[in-house]
Structure formats: structure tokens, C-alpha cells
Amino acid sequence: MLLSIMFPIFILILMGYASVGMGLIQSDQIKALGTFVMKVSLPAFMLYSLSQDKQLDHLSIVSYFTVYGVASLAIFFIAYYCFKHWFLQRSASAIVLSLGATTSNTGLVGAAILPLLIGQEVIHYLALTILFESFILTSLMLFLAESGLSASTQFAVLSKKTLHHIFKNPLILAILIGLLCLVFDYRFPAFLMEPFAWLSKVSAPLALFVIGGTLSKLRLRQIDRQAIYLMLFKTFCLPTLVFTLFLILPKADEAMVHTAVIIAMLPMPTLFMTLGQIYGIEKRTNNAFILSNISALCMLSTCIYFWY
After folding, report:
1. Is residue 152 pLDDT above 50, yes or no?
2. Which segments cross the bilayer (predicted)?
3. What is the pTM of this model?
């Protein structure tokens, strides 16, 4: 089972890595492919998958959201304290690093491997995680970082800027529409959903290809302590805390637990590196990003071996 799932994933990532490394595809083209995945094919995949879902277990949704939310926020603030007081980072830099410790590459990697591992029935958990990371974690990070850089900025201005950043995202809009259809049991006409079905089929392979191409141009300059701490927070502490909290819940659904743990151990999103460039910590974020991808693949392989 491990080979049948992980081997195609490794091959697609390697193809992206080799294509950029050999000059067949340029870095700008990889960025364009990544934009296509995040703004076109992945929203189509989420909307189509959610619209095809048959039922929504409200109790499971509340349990999942509570456990994942509590674990993520706990790691966020622990990581912030660590980077702020132990490594003496500026507040804005510590916030960006804390975001890297708690947000996953849910769109590119999660949407590619979860249907293979568990099935389409857990897509709504994936959608909820993306909403949580966008509305709560990323909004919290942007608000705190921006307010730290400009303390005189009004709350209303920051709130408007943050909400605008979220609602102009096609992926968020697609998830919200899909969840509304799921809640109200609405089905789009088949002829309308067919193009979305076609687009959704290219989402997973392209996402993995883009990950490989992105990694191709990155170099691990040095393995510093901050990058190691950040990698441990992301791929070890967060999934461990999520799993531990689910053990407390009575009769937690196995598919839900596996979904939450796998999402929690996914590597950091590419947004993390972009934020690193904006806030002047590019070297640290790049190192942590590479380490998180390596450790996440190892952790995922281990979980797949024991669970499936």
C-alpha cells in the first residue's frame, strides 16, 4: 500500500524538480502553473467534490473544527513565544514564523494525496481546514504583523484589508459555495458541473509537479536552530497534539482523525516563503520550507505504512 500511494507522488514531485533543474521549464512558468492550480483547477476541484458530497455530519464537523483549531492556535502562540523570546525575533518576524509552524500546504499537497489515501468523503474536512487557515490563522498573522508595523493604523482599516485579502481568493469562494450547496442539499445541473470535473482531474498531478519545480530552485544553505525548531513544530508537534486531542474525544471517526493528522503534518505552504521575502527573513523561511518538505514526506510515509 505504501509503495502504491507514495511512489506516484514521489515521481510527480521528481518530474517537476527535474524539469526545472534541466531547464525544460523555467521558474516563472512554474509560478504560472502554481497560480493556475490555486486559482482555477483547485477551486474547481473543491467546488465539484463538495457538490457531489452526499451528507454532512454536523457533530463530526464541530469535533474536527474544535480539535484542529485548538491545536493550531496553541502551537501558533507557543511558537511565537519561542521565536520572540528565545531567538529574539522582531514581533512581525516571529508572527510569520509562527504561521509557518501551524499552516499546511493544504491546497497543493493535501488536495493531491488525501483523496488517494482516504477518499473523496473527507473533502469537506480539507475545505474546513483551508477556511480555518485563511480566516483565522492567516488573518490573525496579517492583522498582528500589519498592526505591529504601523501601530497607528485603525482597526477598521486593518480588518477591511484582511477581509479583502481573503474574499478575493477564488479557492475560498469556491469552498464557501460548495459548503452552502452541501448544507442546503443543492445540486448543480450535470452539464454545468462537467467542466469543473474535467478541471478537477488535473489539480492533483499539477500540484505535485509544481511542488517539485518550486523545490528545484531552493538550496538549503545551512541547517540553523530556528529552521529545525520550526520544522519540529510543523511536522511533529502539531500532528502529535492533534492526535492526542482526538484521543480524548469519545468514538472519534477514524477517517476524520487520519485526515486531521495528515493535514497537520503537511509541509508549509509556499505563501510562507513569500511572507518571508516581504518581512525580510527570506533565508530563514526558505530553509524551514525545505526541511518541512523533507520531514513531512518521511512522516507521511511512516503514517501510511502503519495506518494503511
Report:
1. no
2. 6-25, 32-50, 62-83, 95-117, 123-145, 166-186, 198-215, 227-249, 255-276, 288-307
3. 0.87
